[in-house]
Amino acid sequence: MALQGSLLDQIDDVGLRPLVGAIRRVELTRGAWIDLRPGWLTGADELFSRLSLGGSAGVDWQGERRQMYDREVATPRLLRFYHAHETLPDPVLTQARSALSAHYRGELGEPFTTAGMCLYRDGRDSVAWHGDRIGRSNTHDTMVAIVSIGQPRTFAMRPVGGGASIRHTLGHGDLIVMGGSAQRTWEHAIPKSSKATGPRISIQFRPYDVR
Ligand SMILES: O=C(O)CCC(=O)C(=O)O
């Protein structure tokens, strides 16, 4: 997988910039909101290299299959889900989870615990419109925080039941947090791209029993 690096990433060690004072909140409809913190993670290209290695040095990426009408097809992205008790594949991800838990403690009332990871190998990899509605997020407000590294991809959101979609281009260490009712009243997707597109990894931090 060829990653075209960002100049900014090349001059930074892997780490985190501050959250306080650097987050922009966008209120959506029906009690949903997003927080945006571009370039939160520094050294994103270096982290990408570490995580995209297979085997013991990186992440044991797994393909998934799903039933589509009468045939089984491969899900178009690779995945690895880290349960709360598992060690995350890089110390900076543990720091990121702690920093998010500390920053949102008052508003969320509980820590982020799990880390879902997705590898989009090129523009053909994608995820269709959905809300993260397994568990308490099906009935309660919550937060899902996503850090994107690698090539930027469109992160699209639209209201459930219809309405204009919004789009943000996320990669190279950008953070988006979906909050309030966003998992119930809005949907999100990473659309396919017909342009030449390098690989992207997203890391999603969620509280217990939200998926
Ligand atoms: O890759 C992303 O940023 C979104 C991932 C996502 O929506 C999911 O895995 O539920």
Report on the structure:
The structure is a single chain. The protein has four helices and 15 strands. The protein has 211 residues and is of the alpha+beta class. The chain has a single domain (22-51, 75-206), classed as Sandwich (Jelly Rolls). Strand 11 and strand 12 form a beta hairpin. The chain is globular and about 40 Å long. It starts with 6 loop residues before the first helix and ends with a strand. Residues 116, 118, 127, 132, 146, 155, 188, 190, 202, 204 line the site of 2-oxoglutaric acid.
- Number of helical regions: 4
CATH architectural name: Sandwich
Strand content: 35-45%
Distance between the termini: 28 Å
Q: Supply the helix-strand structural class.
A: alpha+beta
User: Could you state the CATH homologous superfamily?
Assistant: Alpha-ketoglutarate-dependent dioxygenase AlkB-like
Please count the beta strands (DSSP E, at least 2 residues each): 15
Order of helices and strands: HEEEEHEEEHEEEEEEHEE
**Shape designation:** globular
Proportion of helical residues: 10-25%
CATH topology: Jelly Rolls
The small-molecule ligands in this entry are: 2-oxoglutaric acid
Q: Which stretches are low in confidence, meaning pLDDT under 50 for 5 or more residues running?
A: none
Mean pLDDT: 93
Indicate how many domains the architecture comprises: 1
Radius of gyration: 16 Å
Q: What is the makeup of the main sheet?
A: 7 strands, antiparallel
Strand order of the largest sheet: 2-3-13-10-15-8-7
**Regarding CATH, which class?**
Mainly Beta
What can be said about this structure in brief?
17% of the residues lie in helices and 37% in strands. It has 211 residues and is α+β, with helices and mostly antiparallel strands.
